Amino acid sequence: MYVIIVYDIKVERVNKVKGFLRKHLYWIQNSVFEGEVTKSELEEIKTGLLDIINKKDDSVIIYRFRTDDAFTRKVLGVEKAPINGIL
Amino acid sequence: MKKNYYLMSDGMLKRRENTVYFVNKDGKKPIPINKIYSIYAYGSLTFSSQAIHLLAKEGIPVHFFNYYGYYDGSFYPREKLLSGDLIINQAEHYLDHEKRIFIAKKFVEGAAKNMEKVLKYYHLENQISTILPELDGCNIITEVMNVEGRIRADYYRKMNEILPENFNFDKRVKRPPENMINALISFGNSMVYSTVLSEIYNTQLNPTISYLHEPSERRFSLALDLSEIFKPILVDRLIFYLVNKRMLSEDDFEKDLNYCLLNDRGRKIFIKEYDERLKKTIKHRELNRKVSYKRLIRLESYKLIKHLLGSKEYKPFVMWW
């Protein structure tokens, strides 16, 4: 499945969340990650995030799509981080 | 979905935040470690041992290619899938002449039939089906190789009829390739070779024990064996596609070197399309589900394992479309 994760985290933890998500997903913009994951990887991501965040202060939203064909994506302005396998 | 990463520019591979960063003149680019299947390094790559530690831990092979796009070698992480039983069987099938030649013939048969399919697609008459039965009479490996060589010669002659005139070539020449088509074949074959190696890494097979090619030292020759079957499917068809659709032209080769080498732009085009092709799926007849071309290579390794363990006789993969 394809997921988009957006978050709003207190400054002291924000880098931890970013660093953690970097292992699994593509960084798109500040506080936005996306990418293809398996069911089990999503569970891994969820438990990982719950370990880091403070449930009272922080907020993470996960959007799930069946595949990346299920939505269209349009970037206005600068594409900050193109997802590309050829570097 | 894990994918292949192709590092075309010069740069450095670093470990940071428990993932790898590719740093080049354009800046830093993080690559999610869980999304890497294998890495193909074409530019000059510097990496820290920390990065290698991480790649080894995650079992990600790195394939290195030199300045000219030739395969140099691979960083092959410690094998995680081990099976002493299978290795013994693998070696036994090599040592027993009958058994070895059986598998070697199968590889040639698979390769030849796939070549035939490629030509058939373009409605070209060929000699392959008349040469192929000669395999039955072969008792030594060099004879098998010989049959394969003749099939290939016939095949390459026919290729000219598919290619536009400015891309024509006389024969297959290696080290160095003399013209554009030879350059493309060499480049493509080295990619298939490393793709196959990545797949073998993910099975219990030992990549150094081979059957058609002599298992010489310093080479993963089983990858050469299995590549034979997939070269016509992955490389040759891709070349026809790229050339006939005019996606590659003379400008994509190094002129100074007599067109024997793809330049940066050409390489990028080739690799992009090659990667697309690996991801492309077909409906598998036996499994009755969609399977990508890359997966087909893995399935081929599994079939070989089954043969070696004696549970099912190996039949090479032949395109049916």
Automatic annotation (TrEMBL), chain A:
Gene3D superfamilies: 3.30.70.240
Top-level EC class: hydrolase
Pfam families: CRISPR_Cas2
Keywords: Antiviral defense, Endonuclease, Hydrolase, Magnesium, Metal-binding, Nuclease
GO terms for biological process, alphabetical: defense response to virus; maintenance of CRISPR repeat elements
Residues that bind Mg(2+): 8
Keyword Cytoplasm: no
Superkingdom in the source lineage: Archaea
Keyword field contains Hydrolase: yes
UniProt subunit comment: Homodimer, forms a heterotetramer with a Cas1 homodimer.
Record function comment: CRISPR (clustered regularly interspaced short palindromic repeat), is an adaptive immune system that provides protection against mobile genetic elements (viruses, transposable elements and conjugative plasmids). CRISPR clusters contain sequences complementary to antecedent mobile elements and target invading nucleic acids. CRISPR clusters are transcribed and processed into CRISPR RNA (crRNA). Functions as a ssRNA-specific endoribonuclease. Involved in the integration of spacer DNA into the CRISPR cassette.
Name this polypeptide is given: CRISPR-associated endoribonuclease Cas2
Name of the gene encoding the protein in the UniProt record: cas2
UniProtKB/TrEMBL annotation, chain B:
InterPro entries linked to this entry: CRISPR-assoc_Cas1, CRISPR-assoc_Cas1_C, CRISPR-assoc_Cas1_HMARI/TNEAP, CRISPR-assoc_Cas1_N
GO biological process: one example: defense response to virus
GO molecular function: DNA binding; DNA endonuclease activity; hydrolase activity; metal ion binding
Function: CRISPR (clustered regularly interspaced short palindromic repeat), is an adaptive immune system that provides protection against mobile genetic elements (viruses, transposable elements and conjugative plasmids). CRISPR clusters contain spacers, sequences complementary to antecedent mobile elements, and target invading nucleic acids. CRISPR clusters are transcribed and processed into CRISPR RNA (crRNA). Acts as a dsDNA endonuclease. Involved in the integration of spacer DNA into the CRISPR cassette.
Binding partners and assembly: Homodimer, forms a heterotetramer with a Cas2 homodimer.
Record PANTHER family: CRISPR-ASSOCIATED ENDONUCLEASE CAS1
Name of this protein: CRISPR-associated endonuclease Cas1
